[in-house]
User: Fold these one by one.
Assistant:
Number 1:
Amino acid sequence: MTRARQGMIICVPEGSPSDHTRLPEFYDGTYNYLKSIGIEEI
């Protein structure tokens, strides 16, 4: 997470199906939650 004068960027990686330590399922819940509370995707 990084902060700027006019906003904030939250990076949720896509993950990689070929790497069992970075499966997309690990990140999908966080991404969906942030979208559900109104955070805009850029």
Number 2:
Amino acid sequence: MPSKFILSACSLLLSIACLADNKRPVTIYVDADNTHTVASTESIVLGINAALADNRSINDDLEISLKVLDHRGNSARSKANFKRISNDPTAIAIYTGMHSPPLIKNRTFNNSLGIPIFVPWAAGGPITRLDDGTNFTFRLSIDDSQVGEKLIDFALNKLDCATPQLMLEDTGWGRSNQRSMTKALKDRGREPPKISWFGWDEKEASIRVKVDQIAASEPTCIMLVANASEGAKIVRVLHQHLPTVPIVSHWGITGSNFIEQLSPVAIEDPSLYVVQTCFAFTTSDQDDVHKQAAKTLLAIKPELKEAAALNAPVGFIHAYDLTRLMLQALASTDHDLEISALRDQLRQAMYRQFDYQGLIKNYTTVFTPNTQANDQGHEALSSENYCMAEYEGSRINIIEKAF
């Protein structure tokens, strides 16, 4: 991550002054894929930095810095990063990136470290559901245990799609969506869907074979769960082989250079719909909170002409709201505590009452402990906050009342 994207409450030049002010140094880490999905990681880091800039005085006895580690989409490397972070006596929190598989595979280990984990993108359902131990993972993003049903409803009710076909990434994220979408179809009296699986870095020739097989079943829409690289190949091939079949996509395609890999025709025909949370900087009705976040974003990244031009915008939007909440919770803790006690107090403070009008919604009671009766406790958002969107050139526009 280029240094211009990483700010801290005290710059290097001012660090001596900060120490003189007796500020306690704490570090926020980001463990994400900064090799294959750079846009999503950059967007998340920008959101954290903007929230820090807009709330600099809320924890004015702390020197907050931000460090980015690159797991390159590899679960083993992510686990090693978490272990390294746990050995840093200044580490106060870990933010994660867009990939669900590392968080699903390492879920028990990650939580055992006792460091609050904040998830502003990865959507895999199991991420916030811990079978045993204390849950340190808090998500402000889409949750696949809810979104699969919403994607199916959109396809059936808005697109009159009688026979959805699933094209899913063969990972924990894809399988999470398989379960939720298959259940949603069963609950609506529909037959189990046909499913085509693909892997990371799947070749276009292999995708063509899969699409030929899909075409033989005459689907009336495609439900796509893919990241940008594979998603672009799939959409290109679908446009060539099934040009009239609409595509209903999870948002993994928005995390990198998806649009740059497609022609305008391939985006618009067949119709391509992608799930988002219900705020975008293209929305015309914006209040002071939205305007302030956009202003701070442009101050941090002045090469942007406007906030709406940011790539992978949900990373910024979610990380901004989540960091504003985290900073409020951190302000209510005892900053003189030993680091492990401070981390646990921050975890408990995430259950407090908030009063924050955010980019997506007004946040009050945001998180509650998970129980058998309610496994949504560590989810800041619900299906009421999910919308569908369409591309207009490189920008994403929310479709109002999509669900």
